[in-house]
């Protein structure tokens, strides 16, 4: 149980276009979803925390108008990178947790999305 | 601020035992978790400690001392497949909204 999927797994786009990444919890209801960015051989950098039905909480230094997050349901959150530029190229990972059971203290991670902006 | 410290790299041979330490300084503390991440993959949960002491799960054990703001992950009978990055993470609020990850420790297991 506790499977989180991400789509797409990789995407290549031209500079200036927008890219949407979906994160779904497949077999549990995710009270909270997190979006991370990770550069090669580095740690996970939290971008934002989102709860279903409310606005995402962004970490300091993360532009909310550039990285749009929507958590429309308890099983789906989306991250849209607007007007992407080459410096936005990175590995984006989502995770989900719920307020019940073992997943209260544990985050279940999606497989990640590798974004390359040309 | 909130910060976690881990060694950046650890190298050991197959069959050995390795300990990865984590010290933390956070605004709140509700538990310490450990995650494993292979290159190109997603982090996977290994263990969680909310109380002091040692938690054992197969070849992996995790220890916590809240008074020392310190924990470690112990890996026994190392295998080549254990080569990965290991992250400690602190849950710093009571509502599961704030998790702070450490910088990660890259473990290389040699034959």
Fold blueprint:
The complex is a heterodimer of chains A (118) and B (111).
Chain A: E1 4-7, E2 10-13, E3 19-25, E4 32-38, E5 44-51, E6 57-58, E7 67-73, E8 76-81, E9 90-97, E10 108-109, E11 113-117
Parallel strand pairs in A: 2-11
Antiparallel strand pairs in A: 1-3, 3-8, 4-5, 4-9, 5-6, 7-8, 9-10, 9-11
Chain B: E1 3-5, E2 9-13, E3 18-25, E4 32-37, E5 44-49, E6 53-57, E7 60-65, E8 70-75, E9 84-91, E10 99-101, E11 105-110
Parallel strand pairs in B: 2-11
Antiparallel strand pairs in B: 1-3, 3-8, 4-5, 4-9, 6-7, 7-8, 9-10, 9-11
Residues in β-strands, percent of chain B:
over 45%
Using the alpha-carbon principal axes, give the shape of chain B. Answer: globular
Structural class of chain A: mainly beta
Mean pLDDT of chain B: 93
The helix tally of chain A amounts to: 0
Protein model, in words:
The complex is a heterodimer of chains A (118) and B (111). With 118 residues, chain A is mainly beta. Chain A is 0% helix and 51% strand. Chain A contains no helices and 11 strands. Chain A has strands spanning 4-7, 10-13, 19-25, 32-38, 44-51, 57-58, 67-73, 76-81, 90-97, 108-109, 113-117. In chain A, the strands form 2 sheets. In chain A, strands 2, 4, 5, 6, 9, 10 and 11 form a 7-stranded mixed sheet that branches. In chain A, strands 1-3-8-7 form a 4-stranded antiparallel sheet, with no helix packed on it. The mean pLDDT of chain A is 91. Chain B is mainly β. Chain B has no helices and 11 strands. Chain B has strands at 3-5, 9-13, 18-25, 32-37, 44-49, 53-57, 60-65, 70-75, 84-91, 99-101, 105-110. In chain B, strands 2, 4, 5, 9, 10 and 11 form a 6-stranded mixed sheet that branches. The mean pLDDT of chain B is 93.
